[in-house]
């Protein structure tokens, strides 16, 4: 057995990574689905929590915000741990444990127990997004890597959309506890299939032998780069605006003049397809206009979408929400790709830091949106979203290469 930095590694030669691409692709589609369904299945349920647990809308939003906040910090730690443990087991335990926690939360006797289990779910889920791309880069043939990563990303988008859809539809048929339990059970099945479908052999690239005490210095070096620093913050604004929009859109559509049921509200999440269609086109736009202009345009689209959604005419409201979705997907594709290009070294750390701030932004703006809704209803939420998006445009780096 070979040794590397004092830890056992799998000996070479390993089976060629191209022999099992369909198993890896399928496994990561399931993993992406499970991870993001578990995060976002509570979003359409937020209006249910004030009634059931007697909490304010801002407090109810913690069911999502606390999960994403703990997920963001978990990824930083797990990314380092993954360098010295079996990554297949780490990712599998992550999604299986999170699924079991989600099932348990369906039986919560009070708000404190429920929110505690949601926090643990966020911590548990950090093991998959922190490791997935590194695992794929090591185990998939380079010619197939882009397609495999694309399928994983599709799984995450499908999981986020499915979790939200199921959240509304099942709640209409039963209650929110049924929703959380059923989604947790589906994700548990996905996690088990992921474990058995993923090949046992792991082709691991050698990890640099850098002790834990050096991590803060590595993180700080990237924060000193003005372009990376701006892009990390932009990620937080992007997901923050997006999550705040959908957290309180559910509350708005339950009220007059719409008076939607939970099932009808969940159908609004089908608008996600507009963003999923637009994001692959960003590469062409970046090549033509440059990443700074595309990122600014994405934030302006979010702000415009928020303003259009103020209308009580349903088609205009849905158009506004579609613009927010398009702006978010376009901005995330642009900013995350820009981070990868900018970080010549330490790409994994840069990606982890981007995702950390990305989820912190979701937690903070998602929570603040609760106060905007509580005191000013949808108009207050739109002011928060549009204001944050316009502020973000001023922070976009002036040039792609500065």
In short:
The protein has about 400 residues and is mainly alpha-helical. The protein has helices at about 20-40, 50-55, 55-60, 60-80, 85-105, 110-125, 130-140, 140-175, 175-195, 215-225, 225-255, 260-265, 270-280, 280-290, 290-310, 315-340, 345-395; strands spanning about 5, 5-10. The protein has a two-stranded antiparallel ribbon.
Describe, in plain words, how this protein is organized in 3D.
By secondary structure, the chain is an all-alpha fold. It folds into two domains: 18-204, MFS general substrate transporter like domains (Growth Hormone, Chain: A, Up-down Bundle), CATH 1.20.1250; 214-402, Growth Hormone, Chain: A, CATH 1.20.1250.20. It has helices spanning 21-40, 48-53, 57-60, 62-81, 87-105, 111-125, 132-139, 142-173, 176-197, 215-223, 226-254, 262-267, 272-278, 282-289, 291-308, 314-342, 347-395; strands at 3-4, 7-8. The protein has a two-stranded antiparallel sheet. A hairpin with a 2-residue loop joins strand 1 and strand 2 (7-8). Helix 1 packs parallel to helix 5 and helix 1 (21-40) packs antiparallel against helix 9 (176-197). The longest helix has 49 residues, at 347-395. The radius of gyration is 21 Å and the shape is globular. The N and C termini lie far apart (46 Å). The model is unreliable at 1-19 (pLDDT under 50).
């Amino acid at each position: 057995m070979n040794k590397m930095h004092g830890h056992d590694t799998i000996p070479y030669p390993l089976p060629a990574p191209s022999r099992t691409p369909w198993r890896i692709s399928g496994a990561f589609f399931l993993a992406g689905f499970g991870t993001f369904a578990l995060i976002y299945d509570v979003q359409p349920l937020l209006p249910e929590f004030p009634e059931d647990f007697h909490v304010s809308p801002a407090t109810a939003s913690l069911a999502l915000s606390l999960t994403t906040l703990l997920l963001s910090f978990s990824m930083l730690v797990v990314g380092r741990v993954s360098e010295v443990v079996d990554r297949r087991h780490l990712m599998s335990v992550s999604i299986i444990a999170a699924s079991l926690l989600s099932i348990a939360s369906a039986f919560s006797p009070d708000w404190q127990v429920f929110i505690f289990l949601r926090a643990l779910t966020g911590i548990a889920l950090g093991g998959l997004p922190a490791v997935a791309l590194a695992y794929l880069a090591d185990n998939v043939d380079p010619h197939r890597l882009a397609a495999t990563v694309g399928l994983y990303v599709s799984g995450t988008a499908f999981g986020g959309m499915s979790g939200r859809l199921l959240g509304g539809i099942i709640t209409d048929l039963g209650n929110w506890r049924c929703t959380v339990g059923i989604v947790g059970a589906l994700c548990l099945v996905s996690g088990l299939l992921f474990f058995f479908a993923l090949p046992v052999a792991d082709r691991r690239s050698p990890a640099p032998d850098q002790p834990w005490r050096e991590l803060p210095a590595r993180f700080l070096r990237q924060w000193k780069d003005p372009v990376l620093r701006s892009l990390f913050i932009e990620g937080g604004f992007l997901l923050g605006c997006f999550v705040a929009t959908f957290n309180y859109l559910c509350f708005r559509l339950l009220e007059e003049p719409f008076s939607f049921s939970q099932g009808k509200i969940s159908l609004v999440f089908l608008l996600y397809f507009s963003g999923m269609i637009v994001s692959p086109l960003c590469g062409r736009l970046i090549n033509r206009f440059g990443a700074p202009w595309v990122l600014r345009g994405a934030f302006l689209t979010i702000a415009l979408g928020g303003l259009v959604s103020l209308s009580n005419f349903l088609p205009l409201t849905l158009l506004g929400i579609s613009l927010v979705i398009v702006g978010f997907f376009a901005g995330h594709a642009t900013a995350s790709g820009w981070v990868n290009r900018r970080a010549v070294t330490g790409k994994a750390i840069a990606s982890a830091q981007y995702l950390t701030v990305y989820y912190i932004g979701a937690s903070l703006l998602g929570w603040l949106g609760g106060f905007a809704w509580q005191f000013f209803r949808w108009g207050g939420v739109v002011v928060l979203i549009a204001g944050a998006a316009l502020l973000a445009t001023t922070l976009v780096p002036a040039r792609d290469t500065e």
